[in-house]
Design a protein that fits this description.
Layout lengths: L19 H10 L5 E4 L10 H10 L5 E5 L17 H6 L6 E5 L6 H22 L3 E10 L4 E5 L4 E8 L2 E5 L10 H7 L18 E5 L3 E5 L5 E5 L4 E9 L1 H18 L15 H12 L5
Helix pairs in contact: 1-4, 5-6, 6-7
């Protein structure tokens, strides 16, 4: 990252963030089962509001997103600005009615070290199921009381660790077209938005995970979800990674987008442990030939 990294160091974590029971729970459910975990990260100095405000000002503009927090679960397009700077948004989060995310914070060396230390603890369990741990990234969410992160999906394997305040994550089955149509997946993997259309009837299939400090939740690849903050301001850390399987899922969706242009109705990618290898390789060939745009 070209800008200055924050001027503080990485405090050592005194004990493992995930204990043996947590790693066993993770190994049992990963990669397709949403589940709750305990963590021992505590009030880490890198996750204090002043540290996060400093980090936000150092990150490139493309790595910072923030807006009003009083949002509906489903939105059409990007939400409105809150009228503040990112540093003001974070430092005043208790009263700024905002939701903010700092993306790819591993661009700053202290946060990269933190991310690496956390993923190292569960890398054995990850690689036993989905192979090499690819593209590790971290995101930090800072939310005002009662703020909503609207309904959306993400392409990574993800563990969200609650650091301060409380929130409730509501998840829906990954890969189920009832909650995100195949065409919506294909649009996202070819440059479209991650925000999804909401229908209140979806709640019949919801899995709800209330989170307090010291708790975490695992989110499978492309599992639709939304988050509602509790009555206090909140800080959460999301640690994510990709796998060959997740990349194949993305590439298969993109390949299906191309097939649909020719009037075909392609089959959606299979969920893990199926590989989706043929369409993934097909898309890679088209991309290399410059024909995947």
């Amino acid at each position: 990252m070209n800008a200055h990294s924050p001027s503080f160091g990485l405090a050592s974590v005194q004990r493992s963030t995930f204990d043996d029971d947590g790693r066993q729970t993770f190994a049992k459910h990963y990669p397709e089962g949403p589940h709750r975990l305990r963590h021992h990260l505590g009030d880490h100095c890198l996750l204090e509001l002043d540290a996060l405000a400093e980090l936000a000002e150092a990150l490139p503009d493309t790595s910072v997103e923030y807006n009003r927090g009083d949002l509906p679960i489903g939105i059409d397009g990007k939400p409105r600005s809150n009228g503040l700077t990112i540093a003001e948004t974070i430092r005043q989060v208790a009263k700024s009615n905002s939701w903010a995310v700092l993306k790819n914070v591993e661009q700053a060396a202290p946060y990269k070290a933190l991310l690496t230390s956390l993923l190292d603890e569960i890398s054995v369990e990850i690689e036993a199921k989905t192979g090499a741990l690819l593209t590790p990234q971290a995101y930090i969410f800072i939310s005002s009381p009662n703020a909503v992160t609207p309904y959306h999906f993400d392409p990574e394997h993800n563990i969200l660790l609650q650091i301060r305040g409380s929130k409730t994550m509501t998840q829906f089955p990954a890969g189920d077209a009832r909650f995100a149509a195949d065409e919506v997946h294909e649009g996202y993997h070819t440059g479209g938005p991650r925000e999804l259309s909401w229908d209140e009837s979806f709640m019949n299939a919801a899995q709800t995970f209330p989170l307090e400090p010291g708790e975490a939740v695992y989110v499978p690849v492309m599992a639709p979800h939304f988050v509602r903050n509790g009555p206090q301001s909140s800080v959460s850390l999301s640690i994510t990674w990709r796998s060959e399987w997740s990349y194949a899922e993305s590439e298969t969706r993109a390949f299906n987008h191309i097939l649909r242009k020719f009037g075909l109705t392609p089959k959606a990618p299979s969920r893990w442990p199926q590989t989706n290898r043929a369409k993934s390789l097909g898309f890679r060939v088209l991309r290399k030939a410059g024909l995947a745009g």
